[in-house]
Design brief:
The protein is of the alpha/beta class. The protein has eight helices and seven strands; from the N terminus they run H-H-H-H-E-H-E-H-E-E-H-E-H-E-E. The protein has a seven-stranded mixed sheet, sandwiched between helices.
Length: 224
Amino acid sequence: MAIPPHRSDPDDRGSGPPARVKLIGRALNATVARAPWLWPVLKGPMTSYFDGRAGTWDERTGAPGADHLAPLAVAVTMIDRRPERALDIGTGTGVAALFVAREFPYASVRGVDVSEEMIRRAKAKVGLDPEGRVAFQVADGSSLPYGDGAFDLVTLLNTPPFFAEIARVLRHGGHAIVAASSGDRTPFYTPDSVLARGFRRHGMSTVKTGRIGNGSWFVARKGD
């Protein structure tokens, strides 16, 4: 569930996200980060938005490209342990989750999104996976269908953070990565100060932050 970092409509090619898309994305992102109890009001319209755009999502956003994934690619090198179980929240068509699965070939990877259409396309990318190492399902980032401490790594690419749920499903010593493909030009962008404060309130500390090209990334760890 990620508003595209570069453009939202074919007529916007090369011009960056329109101002209205950026403003809407920022408002939604701030709501999730600072007032998550308002999410139920926004969930329906947001789900419909992404359902309607799922068919052309990868083409519109350049999601499979190196630039899109660059911040996440750098951030995963900053964690100090290889995860056994990873979760990608707001996975969209599954590009980030599949990247994590390639980066950590022995990890079980799950991807969730509120959009059924996005998840349908993510599942189509997995193909035959008899071991079920990579799987996708429709789920709400504010109320994840997993137990406490279920994952070593949680990733978010161009997606607003539900801090409480991220911290809940992470085991002690696990890491969270929040990446934005176009940095502060990404509609769903959360400033480092907001991320640090939000994670700190839920027992997580900042590990490292950085930029690569136009993108940005933030890594936090649960516990000391």
